[in-house]
Every structure is written in C-alpha cells, then in structure tokens.
C-alpha cells in the first residue's frame, strides 16, 4: 500500500526544487538566448553558488548511495569515491581549469575539435555522451528502487515523475536553473541525512561502532593492491574529462575563480561523504534479523547482495521514525535531481554545439543551436528514463563508459591542453582505437563481456582482472597519441609520404599550385570538409580560438583574472609578448583537420 505521508513529502521537495529552478531560469536576461547564456549562465556564476554547483558535480544520488553501500559491503578503505573525486577536482583545478577557462571554450570538446577537427571531435563525443546518459539513467533507476522500498510507490512512476521535473526546469533555465537548484539540493542532502543519523545510531538494534564485532573499516588483501591502485587512478584522472565538471569551470567569471571553486569543492566532496559513511557503518552494525525488516538475509543475519545497493533507504526506513525517514527520503530524491539535471544539460550542450553546429550546420544561428539543445534535453531525458526502466545492468553500462572516458578522453584532453604542438589527428584516431581495444580486451563482468586477455593476476574464480589494465590502456593511448603524431610528421616531412597522402590535412598544407589542373573538384571539396571549419568560434563574441593559434586569431572574450592585473592602466597584454611578433610555429602543421 502506498505510504501517503511519504508521497506528500516527496511532492513537497519536488515542488521546492521546481520552484527554485523556474525562479533561477528567470535570472537569464530577457531576449538573450545565446549559447553562453543557456549553456554557461553567461559565465556569471558567483562564488557562493559556484561552490555549491561545483561540489554537486559529483555529490549526487550515486555518490551518497554508493558510499553507504561501499562501507557496508567492503569497509572504509574500499570507499575510494569521496577521496578519488576530491583529488580529481584538485588536479582538474591545477592542470585544466585555468587554461580551459582562459581560452573561453564553451564545452569540454572544444579544445579537442580545435586540435583534431570537428569529425574527430564528434568521435570523441561518443564516450562522453554515453557516460552522461548512462549515469543519469543509473541514478534514476536507483531513485525508483529507493522510493519502492520506503513508500511502496511504483518504481516506474517515481522514475518518470523525477525525470520530468529535472528535464522541465533544465529546459526552462539551462545552467541557471541547474546551478541554483544545486544549492537547495545540497542543503537538502546535508540536513536530511544528518537529521537521520542520531536516530539510526541510537536504535536499539545497532551495535556500538567501536565494537570488535563491527568491521566497517575493512582491509585490502595483498593480491588486490594493484586492483586498488587501478580504481583509484580511474577515479582521480577519469573524473576530470567530464562535461559536468567543465560546465562549472567554464561558467565561472574568471579562470582564477574556476580554480578556487575546484579546490573548495574538493573539500565539499569529503565533507558531504561523512553522513553516508556513518549510515553505511550503522548498517554494518545492525542486527537486521531483529528489526522489522522482512526481506532476504544471509545465514549470518546480514543483507544479501541484491539488497546492499539500497543500504541508505533501508536504514532510513527501518532504523528511524517515519517523520525522520521522510526528510531523508527527500534528501535522496534531491541528490538524484542534482545529478540527473546536470548530466542531461551536459550531454545536450555537447551535442548541440560540437556535433550539430561544428559538423553539420557550421552557419547555424544562435537561436537554432538553442532550440536544438532544448530538443536534445528532451531526447536525453527520455533516453535516460527508458534505460532506467528497461536495462537491468545499467550500472554495468555506466561503469564501462566511465572506463572509456578515462582511457580515451583523459590522455587526449591532457595533450591538447598542455602539449598541443605534439599531437595531431592521426595520433588521436590511433590512440582512440588502441584504448578501445585494450579496454574491451579486459572484459566487463557486469555486462557479461568475456575477457579476451587474461592479464597477470587474473582471478579465475571471480572472473576479475587484478592487473591495472585500465591504467595500462590509458598509458598506451597516451603513448600512441604522441608516437603516431610524431611518426606522421616524420613521414610527411621526410618525403616518404606525398603531401596528397595527408588525408586529414593536418600535417602539411598542400599548396593549390601543385595540384593537377584536371584534378576533380570534389577532392578539394572533400579536403575542405575534412579540414574542419577554419572559423571555429568560441566565447561571448563567438570569435575565439586560442592565443597560440598559428593564424594569430585573437579571442576578444579572453578574460584576465583580477589578481593578475598589475596596473589597470597598462592596457591589454600582448598575446605573444610582442604584439607585432608572429605566433609560434606549430611543428605539426595545420591543427584544424579531419
């Protein structure tokens, strides 16, 4: 029977979130529907809201549910997500936030398309898109299961209702709505969960956490050391190349502030992990066979593996009074909203800009792009909802996609941001294929994908790769990108390959006067298409490319941090030191290929 009080509690939380989302959407200047206004809130996110929305990059439904589950099943030492994602924000702030924000990019894929061309950028869009969609689907499915446990609401109804609310206010206000609702959602998560902890801890069926009978710390067996390191590196560096993160970075007022927000949000990630850690520990110390829980239990009186994913809602339901559990339930629902809305906006932003505009409709107007993005928001929301309702192994799909983000996108983003002169489209495509093959060869048990290669330390009983093959795939991808890029330059510059063989037109520029007069015009048109759009634009004035571009194009939207200004009357700083000096030569030739 449906719990009416619980349904009312959920509706109240959702109405609050929806009201704030609509109110925030009205902050967008009337009539200003530019890419930056909708996708990046006009790059005007302030410090207070920025801290909350940056923290909400990772603190969501999957974060708090997963943390509680990890504590219960494996112990604190195996709860790597809070520390891993916090470090990813720190490293993102140190190495990526400043250069990305200073360049005035609109999405994470902009620097990749700037270096490798729009077509290769479209290929790199695939793992990013799948990661966002499957992540949103996974947490919506988790919400459905949570509501089914606590208030006996049909999980299909709860998933569809939650998705509709998140999509509606995201559609209405873009990043304005996402950012301001993040503030409310984090408050709900923090207050709701902390309100539940004293009641759960004081429950008569919970043993003292200091008791030797309650092992909520866990341990790492020696044979799992490299497996542990592999997952740690996956969280730290694989947590960087996500549009949900760079969406916040690029919406900051200045590059310096983007870095500060990353560092503060890292502290926020650790801080927000404390309540679910305690709830997981309390669940570990609970004698579930003595509570009113009537589900399946192991002979030792512990929850079965099918129930552990719902540790947090089970604690709320069986160890706290009804009125307290409803506040906690609202917190869980708010956490899911916090994750789902930003993932939907991120995926649709990348599609509208980096696929539709830069590949198919280079001359599309701002209004056309905004409408494409709104349609994409609806499509991504519907896809996530359908997957949450129909795919049983949705977590396995997300797990695979997060691995692909780590092994494919991280090395490519690292190279284009810091070593742009040493990579080109040939290296990018080869690295993409290499990373994909190495990762897939390791298998994925959650998807029923068999391991084609048994790396050293293969656990035949559990069918688990104990060798750090994900990090191996990432490292091989990085090496392949640099080596193939160098090799292509060597072969073309040494004359082993003719200029006409430069199919992607990214190593040597082919002068028109050496083409045969009778060469079909289609070849030139093909080369033009493969060469991307020379006028690929970024920034408020839609005229950005980086200050290191060989053609000397300047980004008028380039912002200098207030802290970096020695004298406001000195005038603008020349991009290359001497405004009359030519830009540096790129050894890999044209960088707008494919």
From TrEMBL:
Locations listed in the record: Membrane
This protein's record includes keyword Signal: no
Pfam families per the UniProt record, alphabetical: SSF
Transmembrane segments: 6-24, 45-64, 70-97, 123-151, 157-176, 183-202, 225-246, 258-283, 369-391, 397-417, 429-453, 473-492
Domain of life: Eukaryota
UniProt KW Glycoprotein keyword: yes
Spans annotated as Disordered: 544-594
Keywords attached to this entry: Glycoprotein, Ion transport, Membrane, Neurotransmitter biosynthesis, Sodium, Sodium transport, Symport, Transmembrane, Transmembrane helix, Transport
Membrane topology, from the record: Multi-pass membrane protein
Main location: membrane
Record's compositionally biased regions (Acidic residues): 559-569
Family affiliation: Belongs to the sodium:solute symporter (SSF) (TC 2.A.21) family.
Protein name: High-affinity choline transporter 1
Species assigned in the record: Vanessa tameamea (Kamehameha butterfly)
